[in-house]
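#onboarding

Welcome to the new folks! Below is a worked example of what a typical request in this channel looks like: someone posts a single protein sequence, and someone else replies with the predicted structure as tokens. Don't worry about understanding the tokens yet, we'll cover that in week two.

Example request:
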Amino acid sequence: MSNDPYAAIAGIIPSFEEEDQVALSRQVLSAARNDPPRGAPLTFEIRKDEPEAVEPGRWRDHHAQWHRLPLGCPVTPLGKLATLSGTTYFFLDTLGEVAVLSENAGKGHITSLFGGRPLYLTWAWPRFGKGGVVTGYAAEDARDDLFAACTYCGTFELEDRVRGRGAWRDDDGRLIYHAGDAIWIDGRWKPPGSHGRYIYPGRPKIGRPSPRMEASGAGSPGDVLLTGLRSWNWERPELDPRLALGWLMTAMVGGALEQRPVIYVNGGEGSGKSTLQKLFRLLMNGALLATSNTTQAGIYQKVKQDSVAVMVDEMEAKEDTRTTDKILELARVAYSGDKMQRGGKDGVGQEFSVMSSFLFSSIAVPAIDAQDASRMAILMLRERVARDTVLEDLGLRDATKIQAIGRQLLKRMVSWFDRPAGEDWNALLARFKATLIAVGHNDRSADTFGALAAACHASLEDTMPDEVELQLWQGLLKSSDLVETSGKERTWRRAFMHMIEAQPEQLRTNRHRSVGSVLAAWRANFVPGFVGENASYEDVIYTLKNFGMTISWGKDEFGQPMLEEWATARLFIPAKHPGLNILYAGTPWAGRMGTPGPWTGVLRQMPPHLWKAGKCDRGLDRKASGILVNLADVFEWDDATPLPMAA
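Example response:
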């Protein structure tokens, strides 16, 4: 008896080649067979059962399309774009790929545009020799008509109109899937080209959804894969394999999602990262760019207008973090599908959208900013204790079976977009997000983990989750227990703590090496029974003046000076000062000499009861502007502390 519970399913799945499909090259070849020999007419059926033979070059009389190209033209004009360096004309060529001609395009460019259809060119734009014999085609006539057709189509922006391979949504929210050589739209496969207001160009094919969806339950594709993922030695054995499965499902339809969660898999040698990556590559059936030692530009130049997933290996922590930071920035942009702008040649900028789901992996996780960490789940793999045969038993070492599982899971994910409102992906995602917000998640983390949990559910079930399953996820994803969310600090808090904990060179010989150290020692003077090192008020002022800071107490509601004690002390932080530039050097909040520093804007994000705007009333510059921070309150602040209600 077979140990592979998937064998019965895999045996009935047709191969990719067995499906009815639009084969682009065959389509071009078939059309070329109908092109007439040089000098012969081309027959059109203008009206049903009324074929008409049109002589070479005579289509202009009666048989032009609205954009003034002949009927049956295998090239589609898209539009034009004028720049400082000249005008560019856009077309779909005979394979449905986006092709570009410059204003000085020659005969070779036009021949390439009509690749595979040379006889059509000699019929549409014939060049006549002696005796009226067609000897070739008139390239200038063809170019003039092609350029005019683009003008009639209007301006064309490649980035706004072209959709590459992967999943998308139409204007009504329905899912569209571009498999490279065919487009799933309106419930059936169509050839690449213009569909609605978007262009879906021909591209190398990727795997399509399975023709039919297998039943859920034990032995289903999702169940088999989850069982296989559990065989890795995850740090969180119940949660991490579910999140990995959820990411795979979201990555399959990334371009159709509002948010695309990021996952980061880290683990040392022997933890099985390479095996996991190979498994994911096979499951994605070509809809994945797997790379390492790359750059931000290398990724988006390769992905272009596709919405396929991206897997980046060897994202190691390095002394020079610029390359890593840029790749993480790209993943952050892709999370929400925002646009990026980059300068182009001849002063013409380029704009592009990034709609890919990202997976990173490395032995050590590099430094990640809070804005990036809030968009990702971090999954840790530990070294496997012993060799097991789980993957072999499940058939997850067989490339053909793995690819079939991937196509079935894609079919399942696609099906969640085609359901009635209230039972579809939008409703499923909303249910999981509300569930996570109830256990302490904010909107961002609920977007991230809610999508992963919902997608995991979609891989396993046909119906909406019940309360038992939702409570299970609440237990697994409790915000206070997750490493991704439990230790998260607000940005203003990180900026403030960096300022008081930094140990600059000018304090190297000081008894107190940081602003925080001297403030803590001074606070001890006001703590009854404190045993330890104290600092005087003079020590505090001496340290603070290096950075343009000072202590003030302000006045009470009756205009009288406050008692000079820790509970009423306020720390003045100037908007600009050379010393603060030094404290913040190497951070995102560093400023430039002589100008207000970014730290001011960040620190103003702290709750209003902790600070107020003010001016320095002592020291060398009594007109310095900045903020006054209530020291006792800010030192006791906890990110989990609810904000006070407004009066």
